[in-house]
Amino acid sequence: MKIAIAGAGVTGCFLGHMLNKKSHEVEIFEAAKKDDHWAVCAWGASKHMLSKFSQDAGLNFDDYILHEGKNLRMDLPKNKTENLILKGLVTYNKQKWENDLLKGLTIKYDYKCDGSFPVNNYDYVLDCTGLHRTLLPRSKEDFIIPAYEYLVENINEEYNEFYVIGYKGARGYFWYFPLDKGRGFVGAGDIDRKYFGINEFLSKNPNAKIIKKIGRPIRLSPPKRMEPFYVGNIIGVGESIGCVFPMLGEGIIPSLICCEIFLKVLDDNPRLFNFSDYRKKVLKRFGYYDDVYKIVRLKMDGKLSTLKHGKLLMNMYKSMKEEEKRFGFEVSLTKMRKLVNAL
Ligand SMILES: Cc1cc2nc3c(=O)[nH]c(=O)nc-3n(C[C@H](O)[C@H](O)[C@H](O)COP(=O)(O)OP(=O)(O)OC[C@H]3O[C@@H](n4cnc5c(N)ncnc54)[C@H](O)[C@@H]3O)c2cc1C
User: In Å, how far are 97, 163, 249 from 146, measured between CA atoms?
Assistant: First the structure.
């Protein structure tokens, strides 16, 4: 099949590589200029899942790992602190991973797809433009959270682990994700745009040097609220259709899982892509993300009650526990209760 991919983020690069491997004719269009193209993200994800996706693509994930976490410290309101035991959460060189996937593929940089894109020249056009969702209609239920981060070097040695600060009312959080050689990402997603923690972190690291400022909002609305997934021969994959875990704004693994669903449905019948089967499978796989999203919004609005919403909270816990490996950190009911109460 002749397939166009709009956007060379994690979704577009992985799909481009896999489709090319399956002998489809692939063309990728990326809005950024080649030298400016950057894998916007804090580069944190579970190594268990990324090892598997890398293997599917013929890459060895160990070659990309920058830091393997053991512990994540979480500062909470009222001077409380929790520690999460990490079970595979790593930072990895996402930029290199994506560039390696693109090797040998046809890609046009500095090409911004819009309504005038020649969709009829292709059997399928994949909207992998993430937050922008450029080729698909807007969703009334779209919900995004402002975020920005710095890539920093010369960070004090004591900051050698994952560290986050959870804001009151779950209105966002600060993160420090260590990379290698004293480098790391310092950032925050915050509905109130105060980004508490970034300046405080930098003042505790007077030698730290900002190498790059990176920013764009993160979509929190899950697939159930991001329909339609397709229009004509245009199909959304990844963050463009809400494949982001709403509590964390974590979208690498969900986007890759979405790619896997897309590839499987395409494999079943490449000539006649089963759109409704794709829709059904995405909604099913990410079904519980809607519960998580409801919890996040209720908490943000100060309306979450552990009593009234106990079933919703329990569903979230059970679903996350089943997928513990995919998150890369311990999923504990006791800690989850403490977090919900503390925030
Ligand atoms: C600051 C920040 C930190 C994050 N940290 C993490 C993290 O540590 N771990 C995690 O799992 N997730 C994280 N996320 C979320 C994660 O980065 C995204 O969910 C994930 O990258 C989505 O992948 P995608 O390929 O669908 O979209 P993107 O990665 O956003 O890629 C979309 C691509 O499309 C291009 N594009 C946009 N519009 C057009 C157009 N009109 N024409 C052509 N190309 C276009 C963009 O330039 C981009 O290259 C973070 C997000 C942000 C903003």
Answer: 26, 20, 11
